[in-house]
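Researcher: Here's a chain I'd like modeled. Treat it as a single chain, no partners, no ligands.
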Amino acid sequence: MKRSHGLKVILLGILVGFMYTSCSSDQVLPREKCQDDVTYEEIRFLLNRKCATSGCHDGSSGYGDFRSYQGMVPDIKNGGIESEVLLKGTMPQNDTLSNMEFHLIQCWIDNGYLKE
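Model: Modeled as a single isolated chain. Structure tokens:
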């Protein structure tokens, strides 16, 4: 029984050592650029449903106005959309994006925030 306990300790030590060395040398790989040309007009319904809601990006809250492309320009220029949605994953607040919704926004951002 003691032998089994010792083996578990050794295996755990090896596992922890492996995890520590593998994590310390990992690098975040850049995501692949999306090849789909997604425009604001194609994702406007998504932005209106997930972002341009009362108290968020509806133009009256002070957090930007995502109801129109022009209203989004300040957040496009300062990188806020990419940062909050793709990098940090903090938006949409109080909601989530499906994989398809996330992909659409990623494509829109990756291809230069096309208007039409």
